[in-house]
């Protein structure tokens, strides 16, 4: 939520935000929403919601050097850290795939040690991108809960969207929290226990 912003400023703010798909402007307050708001919208005469109909990232720079990516935040080419790889179709990210299976805490710690972090695919396009790159491999993403019935969120406080049908379900929880972290499986999120050993993918951008 952003205060004291005219409608044009609010719409431009959404335009420049990769994850913003919907905007509500109410009494000088600007509210930005992700694509998942579309699942909950109903017709109403009391409020107006604006939808971003198209958005394309324009590269202001051509990264000509090997293994460079175009930073969306800095709008310039940066070198991927050692061991990370950039893919030509997804030139805004660097990824590192470890040839081993780790628990969530160990995977998160490993990514931090090499200068990256567990993936944070907030949008459906990012989930599809990771599925295209890594196929059927299941790997952790950076979201964890500590209490039963807690909502999964990203580290910036936004809610996670894009779950598999019927997930999260805390399988075999029987009234206690068993599946407290998330993994990406075939382009959708599933909940898992943090001690489970899954593939490890680290992201840098």
TrEMBL record:
Top-level taxon: Eukaryota
InterPro entries hit by this protein: C-type_lectin-like/link_sf, CTDL_fold
Name this protein carries in UniProt: C-type lectin domain-containing protein
Organism in which the protein naturally occurs: Brachionus calyciflorus
Taxonomic placement: Eukaryota, Metazoa, Spiralia, Gnathifera, Rotifera
């Amino acid at each position: 939520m952003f205060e004291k912003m005219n409608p044009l400023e609010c719409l431009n703010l959404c335009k420049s935000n990769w994850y913003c798909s919907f905007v509500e402007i109410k009494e000088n307050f600007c509210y930005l929403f992700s694509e998942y708001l579309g699942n909950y919208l109903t017709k109403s005469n009391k409020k107006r919601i604006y939808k971003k109909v198209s958005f394309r990232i324009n590269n202001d720079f051509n990264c000509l050097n090997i293994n460079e990516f175009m930073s969306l935040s800095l709008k310039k080419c940066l070198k991927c850290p050692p061991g990370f790889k950039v893919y030509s179709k997804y030139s805004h990210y660097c990824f590192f795939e470890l040839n081993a299976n780790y628990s969530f805490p160990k995977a998160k710690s490993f990514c931090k040690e090499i200068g990256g972090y567990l993936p944070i695919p907030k949008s459906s396009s990012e989930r599809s991108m990771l599925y295209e790159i890594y196929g059927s491999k299941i790997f952790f993403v950076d979201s964890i809960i500590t209490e039963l019935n807690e909502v999964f969120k990203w580290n910036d406080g936004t809610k996670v969207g894009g779950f598999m049908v019927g997930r999260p379900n805390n399988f075999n929880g029987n009234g206690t929290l068993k599946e407290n972290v998330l993994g990406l499986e075939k382009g959708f999120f599933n909940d898992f226990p943090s001690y489970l050993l899954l593939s490890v993918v680290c992201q840098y951008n």
